[in-house]
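Throughout our pipeline, every protein is held as a single compact record rather than as scattered files. Such a record has a labelled line for the sequence and another for the backbone structure tokens. This encoding replaces a full spatial description with a residue-level series of whole-number codes. For reference, a complete record is included directly beneath this paragraph.
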Amino acid sequence: QVQLVESGGGLVQAGGSLRLSCVISGSTFGINTMGWYRQAPGKQRDLVAFISVSGSGGSTHYADSVKGRFAISRDNAKNTVYLQMNTLKPEDTAVYYCNLQTFSGRNYWGQGTQVTVSS
């Protein structure tokens, strides 16, 4: 059983920074990517960023809205993925979910962590 536990959310003023962490426990066999999604009230859940896990390359992908402000990274030894969020804007306010996708296409989700950016 795979479990994802996020931490690091909170309230921050616009222009500030936060770092989210996601610890993965259980079987990590067959992981393809790890990433972050977010969902604002009344909106769909959207991809923020993901990072490949296989190999040592660690290629990344970002939503256009966060490019240059957010950075995703991983620590395979700790089974942890991070999202460093800088220059936060009120429109970044959302519940952020950690995601793990296997090579077979199965998705696992964390419980979510609230990020609120005040103007």
